[in-house]
């Protein structure tokens, strides 16, 4: 991937924006991290996600979807659209759980939005082995689904954090974009350049955000564009997003004056976002306030915001754990460990947030947000 990136930089005149660098490093058709064949998820990969820890994660998400379906009057066609489905484990758990609700199951189609052939192959294998592949359809983009026609849920677990971000620096003279070039030693390094067209000079000042001179941070324009598109294709239902991030006022603070760009390789955090292109995952935290604001442009309304820990507890994960304790064949020790990792603040419980944006749905509060809806923080 390094060779390809150097050619791209040279062809661009000597530098590219970090957003372009990140897009190529992750999604280059032949050499991008997500596009090549290899282990990325799980113990043998580079990172682990909530669905890989226990099926309870997917089971509880399904309960939230069933409730929404009921609140919407139990429509006869209900689409579940998962962005970036990874190994297919979450799709498997949701479909197997949905089978317990025959009327709901009969109405759903499960649509997986996936651009990586390697991941698609893994997803097909997982769903085929589980006996639920008949419900599944694959698309490469939300644009492949008819505009303004979706009734159901568009959802994602750790999707927004992997979309390319613009890397910015606050200089004494104003805001500049951090680009990537190649130094005399042939190594990738950063260079300041004019702002890309999609970044306004007053992006931060118009939001009453003051950055410390010399600080660097990110703006997720791709994420904002995606949520607008999701709102456009959603006729009625919910966009449900689970990811790590912050409300805007907590994101852009002196505590994060170096931003949040991070690499992940063999479960080791890599702080240099230019290291190992094509070989490591690259992520940035999500500005959930910006996502909410962008969603309003396509008529998405805030329906709930909380931490993953509170969301899963609101849906009854502890009660479900207690029920499973008495069943034969259940490794309750490992299951309890997985549940605690999902909900405790020192695990994934506080780092990960859950955001729900709805369109034409009841004002009744969704059960996942009943214990600790934190929408006022946005």
Task: Write up this protein.
The protein is an alpha/beta fold. It has a single domain, classed as Rossmann fold, CATH 3.40.50. The chain is about 35% helix and about 25% strand. The strands form three sheets. Strands 2, 3, 4, 5, 10, 14, 15 and 16 form an eight-stranded mixed β-sheet that branches. A hairpin with a 5-residue loop joins strand 7 and strand 8. The model has no long low-confidence stretch (mean pLDDT about 90).
Largest sheet descriptor: 8 strands, mixed
The name of the CATH topology is Rossmann fold
Given as residue ranges, the uncertain stretches (5+ residues, pLDDT < 50) are none
Distance between the termini: 38 Å
Oligomer: single chain
Look at the structure and give the CATH class. Answer: Alpha Beta
Taken together, the total number of domains comes to: 1
Indicate the proportion of strand residues.
15-25%
Arithmetic mean pLDDT: 92
As a whole number of angstroms, the C-alpha radius of gyration is 21 Å
Ordered list of secondary-structure elements with their pairings:
Elements: H1 2-11, E1 16-17, H2 18-27, H3 50-53, H4 56-71, E2 78-83, H5 89-98, H6 102-107, E3 108-113, H7 117-130, E4 136-139, E5 150-157, E6 166-171, E7 174-182, E8 188-193, E9 216-219, H8 221-233, E10 234-246, H9 248-251, E11 262-265, E12 268-270, E13 281-283, E14 286-287, H10 288-296, E15 301-307, H11 308-314, H12 317-324, H13 332-343, E16 352-359
Parallel strand pairs: 2-3, 2-5, 3-4, 5-10, 10-14
Antiparallel strand pairs: 1-7, 6-7, 6-9, 7-8, 10-16, 11-12, 11-13, 15-16
Helix pairs in contact: 4-5, 5-7, 8-10, 12-13
